[in-house]
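Changelog note: in this version the structure field was regenerated for every chain. One regenerated record is shown below for reference.
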Amino acid sequence: MSDQTPRGGALSHIRVLDLSRVFAGPWAGQMLADLGAEVVKVERPGDGDDARRLGPPFLRDDEGRPTRESGFFMSANRNKKSLTVDLSKPEGQEIVRALARRSDVLIENYKVGDLARHGLDEARLRAENPRLVYCSITGFGQTGPYRARAGYDSIFQGMGGLMAITGHADDTPGGGPQKVGLIVSDLMAGMYASVAILAALEHRDAVSGRGQYIDLALLDSQVAALSHVGMGHLVSGDPLARCGTLSPTAAPSQMFRCADGPIMLVVGNNAQFARLAALTGLPDLAQDGRFRTNLARIGHRAELNALLDPVFASRPKQHWIDAFAAAGIPCGPVNELPEVFADPQVRDRGMVVHLPHPQRAQMPMLANPIRLSDTPVQYRSVPPALGAHTDEVLAEIGYDEAARAALRERGIV
């Protein structure tokens, strides 16, 4: 980080108490931390967040030896402090209440009703701190017939329709519903949560002077993220057939195989198609009645692909990428992960940052894509070791060395 980078992030005035585990909640907490908020992550003594054990892969140290630091945990917990507290004990509950009294935001993803048993529910904590924004992230929300059920991302991809629209058609080899490789439902819920938290903070500070409660569900987030596909079904009543890399609304728009690998091509209008036809040595295609309009091309996609497939296969992918880029036709390679991080555009945009780590001189991390001109994202620290900041955080709320030692002796922290 440059010496010229401002010390205060956009949210440097905000304190966040993160009681969440695994991914959706921690992802939201990391977003706030990246923007400058002070985020204290509360974990179970001894075990910590389950995400710490979700692997492989695990971080390798500078000698190439695997450590116990999972890539999963490190993806969602940078810029945070780790405090270990046993929430089942009254002394641990009082620590959390003390932190909540001085916090602006609390994020939790316990099962519905669990925190109420410990006196850490929204009603209790907001009675003590009316300015607190309390965000609960659960699989199914606080209401409805499924509210008590547990669930993980793949469950919501299936229930929320994402698997129904992902994969190849049933009548093709390998056809049928497919799970997306990323934990999309968690990612979307975390993103929605961070937006909701920022909205609640703005309303508190500019309008009401009071915090509020946020009830956010992974299933709701996945259904909302169906976006244009969900709306297409709602307005037409028609199902959307699974079609692999094909676009149902444009043609040609899909993956094509070149001599040395695949590319993704998207032709968005008739002018682009005319340029494509010329570049592929098939200029007459633009005037062929089967292909003159986008709807016509969709209706005759198989015939069009039969003409284009051997042309693409005759040249290496870079030939087509360069030619189409010069002609203003959207096209790009289908990169494996090493190629993603070697891509000159990705490197120029700084999408990998390096931070010192106790087990590695410089640990690579995915960057945050948000670019703010005056309060840029700051990468202050790697994801913390379990309980690394327990003494620091407890001291800030009045626990002296003797009190902290007594808590440790009883297994509270």
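Spot check on this record: Residues 184-208 form the longest helix (25 residues). Residues 270 and 403 are 73 Å apart (CA to CA).
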